Amino acid sequence: MPGTPDQPFSTRPFTRRRFLQVGAMGVAGLTLADLLAACTKASENSVASGAAFDWASQTSQGSFTWGTWPFYLDQKRVDGERVHPTLDNFTKATGVDVNYREVINEYATFYAKLRPQLEAGQPTDYDLIVMGYPRWVPLMMQLGYLLPVDQSRLTNFNAHAGKAYSDRAWDPGNVYTIPYQGGITGIGYNPELTGREITSYQDLLDPAFAGKVGMFNDTEDLPNLALLGMGVEPKTSTPDNWNAAADMLTKQREDGIVRQYYGQGYLSDLQRGDLALTMAWAADILISNITGFPDLKFVVPDEGALLWVDCLCIPNGAQSAYDAMSMIDYLYDPEVAAGLTAWVQAVSPVPEAKDVLISQGNEDVANNPLVFPTDEMYTKLHDYRVLTADEQQVWDDTFIPVVEG
User: Fold this and answer.
1) pTM confidence score
2) Structural domains in the chain?
3) Those residues with Cβ within 8 angstroms of residue 55's Cβ, 6 or more apart along the chain or in another chain
4) What is the tens place of the pLDDT at every residue in 52-71?
């Protein structure tokens, strides 16, 4: 997380994305079990209720509740208390109060908390939530747990959303989701230890780096990046492609190239020099550059990298859906997006925020391609494979043994 004048960058916790690996190997079973158990009931109840939602009858309730991750919104200290400028400005502009709750530490746990109410067709405690792609948003869409957004109130979104964030293949027309923040999964490396520039996924398989390569221990980034490394588009990949990718990863492990499969510890090992190169999230390398490791580099491999997205969603049963929609569109005002991006420094879905940051003298953030990827980078950023319940079982059976082996 980036710093603020009253809280230096070096004292801040690690990035939001790094929470995702907690319990990664156990998440697949939970998700699949929930999906299989709830699918029939959801198709009968929740989908119908979402499809029948009448936006025309909705009015402002004067407040709404937003469930999200810690440290995922700009903040500062005022008279010793932590405040969120974006929320304060929203309330001044709309008169709507925000009950902002930093309650997500892992998507699997948060989803498990919401699921009983959603499955029963009952309201949750939230009107707006942040959920992640590639796994959680598609799952909740399949189960009918999300309300369609009010397309008539997406004025800022329609005017300012980057093309990579509108009309996503896994949610055509942004019917249920609006991107909040994004990030890139690619390769991080230490040029002093690699002895050369890293440009390709194949560098992760090079025996020259035996014992000095880090790989992720999940069933999202690890398989999808491997498919890209083989020249296969993940979102249209087949079980035959998955088997080939698993074979490639197994050989990498058996050849002694992999030092470790990581959840959160890869960054410290890269900083210490225990790793020469590793699968990495761009935001982690950005943080390293700012906090004393300026020589570490991040690269989008020639074969491509993955663009992950956290999304704003309105769960079924929301009591203040109108006010949640007001916040969703408010965040796409370039001035608002600039303030958010300057603090979070994830990939912004609002390209015009870059010009605002430049006008404010914040060129370091504005000109960083890990925050505002170049057009060339975007051509090499790919979607993940979105899986059905049956496909998820095959996928997990294919890739979990790679890590556990």
Assistant:
1) 0.86
2) 9-182+307-367+388-394 (3.40.190.10), 184-306 (3.40.190.10)
3) 150, 152, 321, 322
4) 789 999 999 999 999 999 99
